[in-house]
Specification:
Number of domains: 2
Shape: globular
CATH class of the largest domain: Alpha Beta
Largest sheet: 9 strands, parallel
Number of strands: 9
Order of helices and strands: HHEHEHEHEHEHEHEHEHHHHHEHH
CATH topology of the largest domain: TIM Barrel
Distance between the termini: 37 Å
């Protein structure tokens, strides 16, 4: 990273989120101003599914032509901190989820160990800022799916001790203690939200200082979480139902309630969630997708392949990157600029919008926000400031609950 970038980042950290004005005669173009703002900001991404590649001989430090994220493209996109997802699908068999999670957590730790000059493990907001001051990518972790604790609070606490700082309460299926929103076909409710044990899990996450992530959960689960959580909640990779009507997205009522509690929604970039043409297509195809699941009840991979082929045959066309900013703008106009950020879902979705095909293109978001008239202070909040605030507030709640304040 050039000295000028290091100096700008140091100044931004010292000045927190204060707006640094730039004289108009110093800027030759909107793009140049956007680039300067992007370089000054602390940019945080809250959901990357690249993690399983760390268990292979795939080289994170090398630029790749496929996938969405590697270190060279991260640097090119100006990303400063990333939450790598500890994720997996359904894992039948006692102990399999915990074993897989530990393998993937270890893989993240090993990645940081192998690249000490480039990466730093971070578990707090202060550690993120410290890593950035040292020119390092701050590496964090989040568990995606409450099934991964296998109904055991000891596993939850162990993940926290190993560095995990959020847990998505469900994935695309119900757990034994929380209902999910599903993905393609909304599942029948199982619990009607959180069970009593689910409430205990949220309370323990609050005590630990682990962010409660409500991406993927059913609406009923969301409302239960807001009722029982002492800390702000986050949606690490969701979008807005008012812009694209998908059950994985959040309604305006949910956004308002989340904001009142101090939370933040990190906008997902997946066209299937952000593009209204694609969400309408998906709704039309629900009967056919249900039929596929019924046809291949014992072969989920075949059902998935057939579903993808069905979607491709009915695809309404490319999704422009500007739709990502439509979702960001909707949140800002609805509840203000303190409650939205970036959670693209890199390497966890089959496609991304045109203009945001990988993390190297992240500067588009800054340029588009600037083009729409948003100021530097708002842009810096969206890029990472809001997430830092929620982390600090969650840490403060934990200190109080655990008697450490």
């Amino acid at each position: 990273m050039p000295f000028s970038r290091r100096l700008a980042l140091a100044l931004s950290l010292l000045l927190c989120t204060a707006c640094i004005t730039t004289r108009p005669d110093e800027i030759r173009s909107l793009r140049e101003l956007a680039d300067r703002i992007h370089e000054r900001a602390l940019v945080i991404e809250t959901h990357s599914d690249t993690t399983p590649l760390f268990e292979t001989d795939w080289d994170f430090a090398e630029r790749h032509d496929d996938g969405h994220m590697d270190l060279p493209r991260i640097r090119e996109g100006g990303l400063d901190a990333v939450f790598f997802s500890i994720w997996m699908g359904k894992t039948p068999g006692e102990g399999r989820a915990i074993k897989t999670a530990i393998d993937r957590i270890d893989a993240v730790h090993e990645l940081v160990r192998r690249l000490p000059d480039e990466l730093a493990l971070a578990t707090t907001a202060d550690e993120i800022e410290r890593a950035v001051r040292r020119d390092k990518l701050a590496v964090l972790m989040g568990v995606e799916g409450g099934h991964i604790i296998e109904d055991d609070l000891r596993a939850l606490r162990t993940y926290y001790r190993l560095g995990v700082r959020y847990m998505t309460l469900t994935h695309s299926f119900h757990t034994n203690w929380a209902d999910s929103a599903g993905t393609d076909v909304p599942p029948e409710p199982r619990h009607g939200g959180l069970t009593e044990f689910g409430e205990q899990i949220v309370a323990e996450m609050n005590r630990l200082g682990m962010l409660v992530d409500i991406s993927h959960v059913a609406d009923s689960t969301f409302w239960d979480v807001l009722r029982v959580s002492d800390a702000p909640v986050v949606a690490t990779h969701s979008s807005c139902r008012a812009v694209a009507d998908h059950p994985r997205n959040m309604s305006d009522a949910m956004l308002r309630a989340m904001a009142e509690k101090g939370g933040v929604i990190q906008i997902n970039f997946f066209p299937g969630y952000i593009d209204p043409a694609k969400t309408e297509m998906a709704k039309r195809l629900i009967p056919q997708v249900k039929a596929l699941y019924e046809k291949y009840p014992d072969d989920p991979e075949r059902a998935r392949e057939e579903r993808i082929a069905l979607y491709e045959a009915n695809d309404p066309g490319p999704t422009p990157a500007s739709l990502v900013v439509d979702h960001i703008a909707h949140v800002i106009e609805l509840v203000g600029d303190d409650h939205v950020g970036l959670g693209a879902d890199w390497d966890g979705v089959p496609s991304l919008p045109e203009g945001l095909e990988d993390v190297s293109k992240l500067g588009f978001v800054t340029a588009e926000l600037l083009k729409r008239g948003y100021g530097e202070d708002t842009i810096r909040k969206v890029l990472g400031g809001n997430m830092l605030r929620v982390m600090r507030e969650t840490e403060a709640v934990a200190a109080k609950l655990d008697g450490r304040d």
